Amino acid sequence: MGQPDPRFADNGLFNVLNVQSRESQPIVIKSVLMNDDPKCVRMDQSLYRPGAPVKLGEVVRFFLGMANFNACEPVKVVITTDRGVATFNFE
What we know:
Radius of gyration: 12 Å
Largest sheet: 4 strands, antiparallel
Strand order of the largest sheet: 4-3-6-7
Number of helices: 0
Number of strands: 7
Strand content: over 45%
Shape: globular
CATH topology: Immunoglobulin-like
């Protein structure tokens, strides 16, 4: 399974979830679920092309909404790839 590393970034206007692959072989992201709410991360509104391989060190950005307005803040992120599932918790 790929071990993506979710990172939360705030670019001032939009909140963004950065997911970076740390696997030597490319992975394919199947889904990203934040805080058990499917509305938090809309893969269809991200720059990620479904089915595209993510290579070692590559970063995929998922927009979470407008900062201080309607954006979800990550507490728990579950990332499903073609190799399995990884859960990340944030404080």
